[in-house]
């Protein structure tokens, strides 16, 4: 089983914060498996809450913040999500040997989606939260709402290698 090493992501100096004004989040959707239990074989399988300033959260916030251009924001500032949408929270799934578990990041909270497994999965959903005040689910282009493969959605949004890139016209 592979082990993903977490990198070092830092916020840019003087970021311009993007803040959600709408949400589809509800704390009732958060993971409940948050107690670390080591079984008889030395294995763990639990979800550790990730604070907003931890490395994985910073990475996701920078990636999603890059959609600012698509939202009509002016060029220049370094846009970063200030927080998750209300009712959302990030978790680090620890699975495997206690001494060296695998780490997978998930964003929980949407009443429509169980969890987002990557920033790329969340970008289209975040775009919908930013642009549709009525939250008409059929207008959301994320893989779960649109029921399309992530590869197709990533291509249509110009997402490459975990970073948001706006297609040149």
TrEMBL record:
One GO term of the biological process aspect: silent mating-type cassette heterochromatin formation
Q: Which residues cross the membrane?
A: none
Q: Give the Cryptic loci regulator 2 N-terminal domain ranges.
A: 79-145
- One cellular component (GO) term of this entry: mating-type region heterochromatin
Mind telling me what this protein is named?
Answer: Cryptic loci regulator 2 N-terminal domain-containing protein
Source organism per UniProt: Cerrena zonata
């Amino acid at each position: 089983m592979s082990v993903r090493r977490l990198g070092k992501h830092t916020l840019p100096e003087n970021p311009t914060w993007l803040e959600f004004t709408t949400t589809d989040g509800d704390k009732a959707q958060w993971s409940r498996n948050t107690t670390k239990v080591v079984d008889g074989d030395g294995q763990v399988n639990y979800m550790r809450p990730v604070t907003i300033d931890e490395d994985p959260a910073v990475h996701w916030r920078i990636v999603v913040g890059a959609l600012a251009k698509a939202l009509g924001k002016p060029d220049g500032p370094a846009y970063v999500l200030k927080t998750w949408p209300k009712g959302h929270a990030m978790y680090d799934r620890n699975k495997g040997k206690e001494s060296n578990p695998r780490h997978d990041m998930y964003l929980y909270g949407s009443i429509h989606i169980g969890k987002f497994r990557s920033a790329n999965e969340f970008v289209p959903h975040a775009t919908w939260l930013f642009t549709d005040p009525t939250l008409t689910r059929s207008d959301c282009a994320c893989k779960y709402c649109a029921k399309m493969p992530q590869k197709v959605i990533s291509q249509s949004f110009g997402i490459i290698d975990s970073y948001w890139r706006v297609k040149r016209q």
